[in-house]
User: Which sequence fits this backbone?
């Protein structure tokens, strides 16, 4: 049976919300089991509060935890009995394990992914790829959103290929439209990196490159994939997050401001719920770390049970939809070795 | 009397909304007049629909218009009788003219600003600086948001100085907190450019540098000034714009979805208006082009009368609050000549 490993100790709300989320996911998809890595006692205490099919849950005890204060490279090397390292080693060695989910330190997930799980042959730089809601009611994939602060044109081209494979495999998009995130839509826009990446991506036969896009186009939904260097992709992602938070702060303040507004809200209960759901991007799960030999999902550090559940489901689906195979296939028909600085 | 020149032909809604906005601004501030540059007849037709004090409005006829399809540098050189070039020349030569407002081509405003108005002595690169609403109900200045796609560390340091001067002069912030927009808050985060800029800004005595910030911090409001290279600043600005648009699309759809939701809205009329106002950043005017010898405000291309009015008021206030002098003063006490690549 397919197994998904969940790092029960990673994230602000570990282990309670992580364990709860992993168990919730069992109800969403059949025929898979979860392996929880972490402190046996702490996990057991959380499991004790829940009802679930015991044949679908396994706990692997570890004594260490990697935190945000650890230096990723040395932590992955030295904390060999941490929930993250043990989990990733299971992912690497156990053929039944199809995916790994962690809400822990992003740096450690990235480092561990590359050092322990390893890259698909030909991948220059793995990249983080979340799915974001857009105004068409669909999703836009943003790749890279933070794994690679410093990029070369060929990396960006490869992000476009890997995220296209993800859009096809996970979301069933037939011919994903790929845009390059810059500071304007005209072809000459951007710095040297993005100008060169544009020319390179234009020549790729294996992706449907539609040209440069601006930050606002990510959420407008005119593309399925927004390719970004990890620096500005991260800036885009977090700027949208900040804007969402501002809106929700203002909404919440105003809707509770008077007795009249509270009465108004009673008429709007269903609508407010719809609004919340439309904007809640945790329904897409976490960011997939594209380019690794196996499925790794990085869930938000502040993830609660629902986000974790979505991330586990995302890992199950990515495995079953052959995400890794699709990336390998698309990469195999592309030769970027001639690209400058590739 | 102080004069503000308004490019009546620039922007998607020119000349109607531009003329209307300029006239509205006359009601907001006393003791200044507007000079409208553009086609005399078209402007006259719009003025004819409005009632205003004729002694405070002047029209300077020009026969040409610079559009978004023009190449900025050649357009500024060749279209000498365009509303933008004529306006900027007035700004440069007429000592009574304190500011210039345009909703026209950003590229042409930037090129014209540098070529015709000129830089303050010591300014390496002028930068675009909008004010954005934050969750404290105040404003965060984002500098640069698009004038310089390719930057050097010393440029970023200077953006911090100029935007601090702007926060002091225009918003009365005593000791503006300056953050550097990167992909994480830790000191080592970012690419080489931002790592070097961080070290440089840390050493500047004239600004209150608080360290690296992330995209979400722009709207959280923990800083008064967010310093960015023009590429990622533009990505941040437009990503927030896209997010705002998505939210407003969803809100509008849901609130009109049923008879019950429409009834609910009746109870919420005042609240919905407050929400709209809180998020409407056009109340701050446009982006000031910091580093020029005179006040230049770039209003959004899609500006309607209200935005233009706010931009004109912004220009009046920036002039009266001695924005240019404050920038000159802060620059005069800073020596960036030793910075790498300065």
Assistant:
């Amino acid at each position: 049976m397919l197994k998904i490993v969940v790092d029960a100790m990673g994230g602000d709300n570990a282990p309670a919300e992580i364990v709860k989320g992993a168990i919730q996911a069992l109800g969403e998809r059949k025929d898979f089991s979860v392996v929880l890595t972490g402190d046996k006692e702490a996990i057991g205490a959380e499991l004790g509060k829940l009802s679930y099919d015991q044949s679908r849950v396994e706990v692997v005890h570890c004594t260490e935890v990697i935190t945000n204060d650890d230096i990723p490279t040395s932590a992955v090397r030295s904390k060999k009995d941490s929930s993250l390292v043990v989990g990733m080693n299971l992912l690497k060695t156990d053929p039944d394990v199809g995916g790994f989910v962690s809400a822990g330190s992003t740096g450690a997930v990235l480092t561990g992914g590359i050092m322990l799980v390893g890259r698909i042959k030909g991948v220059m730089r793995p990249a983080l790829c979340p799915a974001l809601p857009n105004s068409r009611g669909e999703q836009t994939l943003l790749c890279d959103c933070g794994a690679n602060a410093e990029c070369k044109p060929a990396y960006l081209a490869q992000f476009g290929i890997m995220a296209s494979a993800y859009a096809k495999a996970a979301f069933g998009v037939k011919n994903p439209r790929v845009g390059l995130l810059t500071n304007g839509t005209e072809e000459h826009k951007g710095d040297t990196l993005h100008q060169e990446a544009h020319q390179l991506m234009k020549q790729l036969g294996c992706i449907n490159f539609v040209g440069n896009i601006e930050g606002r186009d990510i959420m407008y939904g005119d593309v399925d994939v927004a390719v970004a260097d990890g620096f500005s992709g991260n800036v885009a992602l977090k700027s949208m997050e900040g804007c969402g938070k501002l809106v929700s702060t203002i909404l919440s303040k105003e809707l509770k401001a008077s007795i009249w507004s509270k009465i108004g809200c009673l008429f709007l209960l269903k609508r407010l719920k719809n609004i919340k759901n439309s904007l809640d991007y945790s329904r897409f799960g976490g960011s997939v770390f594209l380019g690794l030999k196996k499925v790794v999902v990085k869930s938000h550090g502040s993830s609660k049970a629902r986000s974790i559940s979505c991330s586990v489901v995302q890992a199950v689906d990515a495995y079953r939809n052959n995400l890794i195979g699709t990336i390998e296939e698309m990469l195999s028909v592309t030769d970027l070795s001639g690209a400058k600085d590739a």
Notes: The mean pLDDT of chain A is 93. The CA atoms of residues 133 and 139 of chain A lie 5 Å apart.
